[in-house]
């Protein structure tokens, strides 16, 4: 049975939000493999990468999503994340619900 990219993406995003980014990274990677041009999936993997300390990988994923989205609010939010990550700061506060952050 093949699990579709959207289901894997949900696992990636929700697991990351709940502090299990390292545990769900396999789902993030597989989702991107199945749908490499889906910005929402790159966004989820970017969050997981940031929370597991892969800052450069997170920036790359967020920048890919920024380039693809027409949503000005999301674009602005993620540009802020990229700026913070480049400065060595944690843009993901307790509002994200994460227990595991490298920051």
Q: How do the helices and strands line up, and which of them pair or pack?
A:
Layout: H1 5-17, H2 21-34, H3 39-51, H4 55-68, H5 72-86
Helix pairs in contact: 1-2, 1-3, 2-3, 3-4, 4-5
Task: Kindly describe this structure.
The chain is globular and about 40 Å long. Helix 1 (5-17) packs antiparallel against helix 2 (21-34). The chain contains five helices and no strands. 67% of the residues lie in helices and 0% in strands. With 103 residues, the chain is mainly alpha-helical. It has a single domain (5-89), classed as Alpha Horseshoe (Serine Threonine Protein Phosphatase 5, Tetratricopeptide repeat), CATH 1.25.40. The model is unreliable at 98-103 (pLDDT under 50). The chain has helices at 5-17, 21-34, 39-51, 55-68, 72-86.
Tell me the series of helices and strands, N- to C-terminal. Answer: HHHHH
Number of domains: 1
Overall 3D shape: globular
How much β-strand is present in the residues?
under 5%
Key structural traits:
103 residues; Serine Threonine Protein Phosphatase 5, Tetratricopeptide repeat; globular
Summary, kept brief:
This protein has 103 residues and is mainly alpha-helical. It has helices at 5-17, 21-34, 39-51, 55-68, 72-86. The longest helix has 15 residues, at 72-86.
């Amino acid at each position: 049975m093949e699990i579709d990219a959207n289901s894997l993406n949900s696992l990636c995003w929700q697991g990351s939000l709940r502090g299990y980014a390292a545990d769900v990274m396999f789902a993030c990677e597989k989702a991107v493999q199945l749908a490499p041009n889906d910005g929402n999936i790159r966004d989820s993997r970017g969050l997981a990468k940031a929370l597991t300390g892969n800052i450069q990988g997170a920036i790359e994923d967020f920048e890919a999503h920024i380039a693809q989205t027409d949503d000005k609010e999301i674009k602005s939010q993620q540009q802020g994340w990229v700026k913070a990550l480049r400065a060595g700061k944690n843009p993901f506060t307790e509002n994200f619900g994460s227990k595991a952050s490298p920051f």
